[in-house]
Amino acid sequence: MNPHNRIARAAVAAALAGMTSPSYAGGFGIATQNGSGTGNAFAGGAAVAEDASTVWYNPAGMTALPGTTNFAISTQILKPSFKFQNTGSTLPPGTGEGGDGGDWTYIPQGFVTHKLSDKWSIGAALNTPFGLKTQYDAGWRGQAIALTSELKTFNFNVSGAYKLNDMWSIGAGVNFLKVELKFNSQIAIGFVEPNLSDNGVGYNVGVLFQPTQNTRVGAHYRSAINLQATGTLVAPALIGGTGSATAGLSTPDTFSLSALHAITPQWDIMGDVTWTGWSHLERLTVVRTSGVATGTAPVSLTFNWSDTWRTSLGVNYKPNATWKFRGGVAYDKTPTNDTDRTARLPDQDRTWLALGAQMKVSKAGTVDVGYAHEFIKDASVNNVAPVTGLRLIGTFKNQVDILSIQYSHSF
Length: 411
Prior knowledge:
Elements: H1 3-16, H2 54-57, E1 69-86, E2 105-115, E3 120-127, E4 131-135, E5 148-163, E6 168-183, E7 185-187, E8 190-212, E9 215-222, E10 225-234, E11 243-251, E12 254-262, E13 267-276, E14 283-288, E15 299-302, E16 308-317, E17 323-332, E18 350-360, E19 365-376, E20 379-384, E21 391-410
Antiparallel strand pairs: 1-2, 1-21, 2-3, 3-5, 4-5, 5-6, 6-8, 7-8, 8-9, 8-10, 9-12, 10-11, 11-14, 12-13, 13-16, 14-15, 16-17, 17-18, 18-19, 19-21, 20-21
């Protein structure tokens, strides 16, 4: 093999290692898809159906909403923290340990539903289901492995639902997903940065069962979406220079089973189990489509991710017709492992503690505020830098704070 090609393989592998950035659920999923669910740690998501965000969590729930038209707008304000502690790296210290790889992030979402008749409902959602970002200080010890890692997604979900009878409703939707990837590193021979994007289409289906006025059970499946991202690859001349590249990847599919039960007029309990098919991400193969190495696969990156389960429990207390107070806990398993975890994605198992409140501000409008803290286990990494073979060895101390605000309206 040409020595330049060997260097190119190592360099691009470093730039892409763990290219998806840490976010606020296991892997690179974003669990916070509305404001009303945050205070319950998203327990009961596929069964609650209390506002228009049910379009995302279970479209069958649109038939259970009050009024004819419902909408909800929300904003998630997130502050993640990812701080590296060196425990034996052979890489030189550089300018330090990278600072805090997390920063403030704002995620807007919008949902709308409309009842065409007593039986039929339609709806739409605009949200961000995957992504977010890590960025370490320039010149830090691990810059040959990771500097900035950014994954952005934009999803438009249109859905329909049909009420079979007083107990059963079904729903389905189509998802149009846009993905943008940008990730870079400063290796020994220069700066490397792929910048890729693609669009994909998937589907989701759900069912809602209400055996009594006080009990709901919901089930929801969302398909994987296969993508072939294309764009540019900025690289030093020694490894082929700037050109075009492509990489295939898939988002995971998910299945949720949720329940809600009103114990009394004042108290609700709810629960949820969600399975996520992260094993779709076994390997990432990047192919140059221009330059001296056109047609070759300069990197075959192993993820070895595993499917995961997320479990959550929540409670609501309604002291009067104006206020509702929420609480919730959740446990979210990481899909990665101690062998393959990288500094770009120092993910680990996390436990949620959440609180929230809803205030009815008018006959048709409500405001929700929710807060959650994610306690994340220490995440160990042992990564090899390209070209030099030196290692980044240490532990990431991670946590996330989430504040959600939502306004919902029914008319």
